[in-house]
Amino acid sequence: MSYDNIIREYTRAIKSNITIYYCDGEELINYLKDVVVTKQLEECQKPLIKVQKDNRTYFTYYGIPTANELWPFLNALARISNDIVQLDQKEIELAKGIRGNIKLFVTPDCTKCPITAEFLYQLVQINPDVTLEIFDVTEYEYEKEKYRVLSVPKIVFNERTEIPGGFPSTIILKMMIKALEKT
Question: Do you know which InterPro entries this protein is assigned to (predicted)?
């Protein structure tokens, strides 16, 4: 990886209180295994990384975060392990009203995806009633087709509501709350 020094610096900020389950991605995991508990999954077909703390799954990343997706991923590990959220009070209050599953579709070279990912990683920190799955559509073609991903970032909320991920976080939250009101 060409980001060796930066990843090593991030590992200084990540505490050992999280567990990472993984399939493939040994190059990235090798940097993290001295800092966090890592457990290799046996029966998986494609790469994935699942992040847990205190028996709670914070998110599952389907693929291996690289390029533009690496920084939000490492930021999420640092935030989760240190219990830090960097959202404003309005975002936090709106986030507490969300419940359900969020799927975020990304590609490593997407320039808007990291902003959406940064926000959604923090949303699951605030609200244990939310599950987050991030799909690298360059690896997960089936999901790309199933959810009709034509551009990224794309959010699918509770399997029904499609939200373009390029909106500001408060707009995304309001769209999710509106979708919950319809159910």
Answer: SSO1120-like_N (IPR054067), Thioredoxin-like_fold (IPR012336), Thioredoxin-like_sf (IPR036249)
